[in-house]
Amino acid sequence: MAQVESTTQRTIAADAATVFDTLADYENTRSKLLPEQFSEYEVREGGDGEGTLVHWKLQATSKRIRDCLLEVTEPTDGQLIEKDRNSSMVTTWTVTPAGEGSCQAVVTTVWTGAGGIGGFFEKTFAPKGLARIYDLMLDNLATEVEKEAKR
Fold first, then answer.
1. Are 25 and 141 in contact (CB under 8 A)?
2. Per-residue confidence (pLDDT) for residue 71, from 0 to 100
3. Are 75 and 84 within 8 A, CB to CB?
4. By the 8 A CB rule, do 131 and 22 touch?
5. Edge-to-edge strands of the sheet including 3-12?
6. 89 and 66 Cβ atoms separated by less than 8 Å
7. DSSP the chain
8. Which of 59, 61, 78, 136 is least enclosed by beta carbons within 10 angstroms?
9. With contact defined as beta carbons under 8 Å apart, do 20 and 95 qualify?
10. Mean pLDDT, to the nearest integer, of 61-74?
11. pLDDT confidence band for 20 (50 / 70 / 90)
12. Phi, psi (degrees; rounded to nearest 5) at 131
């Protein structure tokens, strides 16, 4: 069984603090950012960054649905880590300044993949599929914070 990793990123026309605060707002904003592959979204504890416990289902493919229960930590400024209690999956969001009025948002997800031929296909195809899902979420994030920045 090998570690599988998926990373995607986007430059967003808003300051890093605003983007980070939007991502960390699980209570009010995060659900608006999720594309259709996410369902059954529920904040179970907290709701703002560190200490949040959030649940969702992620339909990665037509046959693969992950039931996720995520503990949120903020180990450093500009970083959110979501650790799934139901699997080895860990998603790290990192937001850093990228010039005046913009920032870079990077999302990386890692997990322990299956073994054998199934593991080969998972390691080959799952990272691209998950990156496409998170690209949609980054698009939604950019739309949300950029419309606020224009007000």
1. no
2. 98
3. no
4. no
5. 3-12, 103-112, 90-97, 79-84, 65-73, 53-59, 38-45
6. yes
7. --EEEEEEEEEESS-HHHHHHHHHBTTTTHHHH--TTEEEEEEEE--BSTT-EEEEEEE-SSS-EEEEEEEEE--STTEEEEEETTSS-EEEEEEEE-STT-EEEEEEEEEEPP-HHHHHHHHHHHHHHHHHHHHHHHHHHHHHHHHHHH-
8. 61
9. yes
10. 90
11. very high
12. -60, -40
Q: Look up tokens 């500009």; give the residue.
A: 78
Q: pTM to 2 decimals? A: 0.91
Task: Locate 103 and state its tokens.
Answer: 């920032």
Answer whether 142's CB lies under 8 Å from 12's CB: yes
- For the record, the structure tokens of 96 come out as 């850093």
